[in-house]
Predict the 3D structure of the following.
Amino acid sequence: MVDRSAFGAKTTADEVLDGIDLSGTSVLITGGTSGLGAETARAMAAKGAEVTITARTEAKGQATVDQIKASAGKTISVEALELGSAKSVRAFAERINSGDRKIDLLINNAGIMACAEATTEDGFEMQFGTNHLGHFLMTCLIAPSLADGGRVVILSSSAHQMSDVMFDDIDMKKGGYERWKSYGQSKTANALFAVELNKRLAVRNIEVFSVHPGVIGTGLTKHLRIRDFLMFIPLMLTGAVKRKSVPAGAATQCFAGTAPEIAGRGGSFLADCKIAEISPEKKRDMTVVWPYAIDPEAAERLWSLSEDLLGEKFAQL
Ligand SMILES: NC(=O)c1ccc[n+]([C@@H]2O[C@H](COP(=O)([O-])OP(=O)(O)OC[C@H]3O[C@@H](n4cnc5c(N)ncnc54)[C@H](OP(=O)(O)O)[C@@H]3O)[C@@H](O)[C@H]2O)c1
């Protein structure tokens, strides 16, 4: 049996789930075709969970499912979802809500990072539109299918320290588009969404957590340029940035989704399999959360803004 009190940066998804029986637990993971989502799906399926991943292309989704079935041999399925398209999100939600399955654990994992300026199918700035708005719409629409007493885990990042939500310039038209600032804004939005969603789902005893998984070499780096990689070298040499393996990267979201230790702490931001320290002095440290990313007033304001942008109110979930 693993020593749970020793969990930290090097703990893996399998170690977090050691001794935890997920049979009969229904898990939905967005963006399960690579990186942290695929590893989380594998580790949870191996513990008996009934896992559904989402994929943008059928071939990629099926390939991941086949791979996981071959290694974990468990129940896993795939659903099509493009978060940059409200039409795709709505069709996905209809399929999920039409079944009788209740989701015990939803992991909003899909994401893109530091892409060139672009817009989603619905005209929203690409990173905010995909990482936040797509997940916001999806989660609100499938809320009836979430099991009372379950959990929601939202992948944020220490990159929240790169930008607060720019409420007066959400699409970055006034200040000009910056790839990293845009990613930072979207990751702050992810953490704020966890705070407000946790508040709204409290009546159903559903707890919501946000997570910084670490720094892990995954498909997320596909938009990076040479100068981005060069930016990381000094940070790695000084130890300010420590790379994790994919199994260690997936550990914190597995912990947030299952750990009994954090029951009652919904709305919290986690890093390295722990509730992160809040840093009022805005310490540049990947394991801390800055106050603006968990501010309840900003979380409420983001909820209203998201509803306004999508043209739909979600008063009751
Ligand atoms: N890796 C890190 O160092 C790190 C650090 C901090 C936070 N995170 C967060 O962790 C999460 C998982 O990232 P990862 O590292 O595992 O990245 P990844 O390997 O690139 O996986 C991202 C997943 O999201 C999917 N996705 C991307 N755009 C989508 C869209 N428009 N609609 C639906 N699905 C979409 C991808 O599908 P396709 O394969 O079709 O593109 C893929 O399955 C992200 O939210 C990321 O921001 C990662």
